Amino acid sequence: FQDTEGNRGGIGIANTESVMFIHGQNGIRFRYSGTSPGNKEAMRFDSNGRVSIGTDSGGTARAFRVKAPSQNSTHISLIDNDSTQEIWQVGNQSDGDGFMQLLTDEGTATIKFDASGVNHINGGNLGIGTDNPAYKLDVQGTNVLANIKSTNNNYVLQIAGNNCPYDVYVGSDDSNNFLLANENNDGTFTERLRITSGGNVA
Predict the structure, then answer these.
(1) With left for phi above 0 and alpha for psi between -120 and 50, is residue 17 left, alpha or beta?
(2) For position 181, what pLDDT does the model report?
(3) 10 Å Cβ neighbour count for 133?
(4) Closest CA to 42 of 33, 50, 61, 59
(5) Most confident of 56-60, 72-76, 81-85, 106-110
(6) What separation in angstroms does the CA of 161 have from each of 14, 154, 166?
(7) How many CA atoms are closer than 13 Å to the CA of 154, on its beta-carbon side?
(8) CB atoms inside a 10 Å sphere around CB 82
(9) Overall pTM > 0.85
């Protein structure tokens, strides 16, 4: 349909309200020719207002779906407004697992979450319970703020100062004794302090 003024059009409906109006009772599908002409669906708007891109497997409750075009690639990205640099990416790795990352406008990934690999936050301070973190990790709240537990070692925390050549280890054992040890130059470590569960220093 095209109105008499020629500035509005409709597909499946006479349109007098907008520049273009497409009407379909069972949703709208965009297809392109593949090995079998008309068999490849590129995009679908279903009757519930959901959008699928690159997949024709409807019936999902999700409002928006994108099928990965290939492994080890970015599927959704956000581009900086004054350059061509992608600053947000979502995709999948070569093993098929997903990833998401934030990048600077120079292309450096400062935040990355990988479903089966290394995750990192490398830039600025991280706050939990605060929107104004003053340290690399700033945790604020009430009651117990953190729980650190090793499933195969008495020592659960490894710390070292800037000029310290060897690390210091903090932990506890199965008798609820508090342990403090330092690392030796051969990679082993030696217990230096033990406070027993009864409060005695050993």
Answers:
(1) alpha
(2) 95
(3) 16
(4) 33
(5) 106-110
(6) 75, 22, 9
(7) 15
(8) 7
(9) no
Nearest Cα residue to 30 out of 15, 11, 14: 11
Token pair for 23: 């009407």
Token readout for 75 is 């599927």
Structure tokens at 69: 């075009």
Contacts of 78 (CB under 8 A, 6+ apart): 86, 87, 88, 89
| Both tokens assigned to 31 | 């297809």
**Tokens found for residue 119:** 């995750």
81 token code pair: 């407004």
CA 182 vs CA 89, 150, 168, 178, 179: distances in Å = 42, 18, 4, 14, 10
Q: Look at 41 and 143; give whichever has higher pLDDT.
A: 143
| CA–CA distance, 87 with 76 (Å, rounded to integer) | 11
